[in-house]
Amino acid sequence: TADTWQEVIAIYKDGTVYLYVDGEEAATPVTTTATAIPGDTSELLIGHSATACKTNDYEGYVDTVYIWGE
């Protein structure tokens, strides 16, 4: 919703990504071949895809980011 803060949570577990917005499941879980976030100096992009065109970039503000590992 425009001009409204929302909590967005993405969970990656066992090759599947789950997306929640304001505590509600927002999309069908997606299976991916992605692996864990690399532990090197690679960029971690939030709201932008390194391979997609710029028209897919997120337009807005990201207030707080947390990343947890198991």
Notes on the protein architecture:
By secondary structure, this protein is mainly β. 0% of the residues lie in helices and 23% in strands. It has no helices and 4 strands. The protein has strands spanning 8-13, 16-21, 24-25, 30-31. Strands 1, 2, 3 and 4 form a 4-stranded antiparallel sheet that branches. The chain is globular and about 35 Å long.
Short description, anyone?
The chain is mainly β and 70 residues long.
Question: What topology emerges from the helices and strands here?
Answer:
Elements: E1 8-13, E2 16-21, E3 24-25, E4 30-31
Antiparallel strand pairs: 1-2, 2-3, 2-4
| Main pleated sheet | 4 strands, antiparallel
**Uncertain regions spanning at least 5 consecutive residues:** none
Rg value: 13 Å
Strand content: 15-25%
Q: How confident overall, as mean pLDDT?
A: 80
Choose one word for the global shape: globular
> Could you give the count of β-strands?
4
Number of helical elements: 0
List keywords for this structure.
single chain; 70 residues; mainly beta; four-stranded antiparallel β-sheet; 4 strands; 0% helix
